[in-house]
Design brief:
The protein is an all-alpha fold. α8 runs antiparallel to α10.
Length: about 260
């Protein structure tokens, strides 16, 4: 038992080291090219400069302030979009009629880029917080909806036949068969949804925002401060990476049966 744990620990260390190799090489080359003048520092500052800017912004609290505002917006929009996506996804997945009726609307609305909703939401909702949260909600809605529909519709037919033979009612079939079967796909949608939410926060904070990481990026661009701008961009990526890692761990705990099947 202890040997297997040690092996798993060693394998994790090896995977982490392998994953960190390429970024380290990239950063070293970036720093070197910056020092030699091959890269224009007024456009792309060296990693050491970005690190100094990062520590300075953390020290003053500016980065945390903007990140906190953006995180609150992302959480609100993500939960709104996810709830609506799950509800409609289950409904569309269960009913062929609803699926047929909604197919045209989904086909028209889904390809619309998130930036195109900015002027529409300003016209409808003004420049208050609601328009920003709604924009983030739209971005996270589609991945959750589509993956939920796919998960429900791809439920194993044999499992459904067994449930019908055992004379289970519709609620039991939904809660005991369809939803558990759809959970892997749902979690994929949730992970894509939170990624989309962070992608949309920059567009959302273009709507007359005075705080937030998207505002920080846009404002630093206007002031020609590429170091602050890139720190904001990297911060979004790091927060997104942490959230995705947390979701992966939650998924593994909730779907232990699915993980065991994949290992077999």
């Amino acid at each position: 038992m202890e040997k297997s744990k040690n092996r798993n620990y060693q394998n994790k260390i090896k995977r982490m080291a392998a994953g960190a190799t390429l970024p380290i090489i990239f950063l070293v080359l970036w720093e070197w090219f910056g020092e030699t003048g091959a890269i224009n520092q007024s456009i792309l500052p060296r990693p050491s400069i970005l690190w100094n800017t990062l520590t300075e912004m953390i020290g003053t609290g500016d980065l945390q302030k903007h990140l906190l505002v953006s995180m609150i917006r992302v959480i609100k929009g993500f939960f709104a979009g996810t709830f609506l996506g799950l509800f409609l996804g289950v409904l569309i997945g269960l009913s062929k009629k609803v699926n047929e009726l909604s197919a045209v609307f989904i086909g028209i609305l889904r390809p619309i880029p998130i930036i195109a909703w900015v002027p529409v939401l300003i016209l409808w909702m003004g420049i208050d917080e609601g328009s920003k949260v709604t924009l983030i909600g739209i971005g996270s809605f589609w991945p959750v909806l589509l993956n939920t529909v796919r998960g429900i519709q791809n439920t194993d037919k044999k499992l459904l036949e067994v449930a019908y033979i055992l004379e289970k009612n519709r609620i039991q079939i939904l809660t005991k068969v369809m939803i558990p079967s759809a959970l892997p796909s749902v979690f994929t949608g949730i992970r894509l949804g939170i990624g989309a939410a962070w992608s949309c926060v920059v567009a959302a904070e273009m709507i007359a925002a005075a705080k937030g990481i998207g505002y920080l990026i846009m404002y630093s661009r206007e002031l020609s401060q590429p170091d602050i701008m890139l720190v904001g961009v990297v911060s979004i990526g790091m927060v997104g990476l942490i959230i995705d890692a947390v979701l992966i761990r939650v998924e593994k705990r909730v779907l232990r049966w699915n993980t065991a099947e994949e290992q077999e």
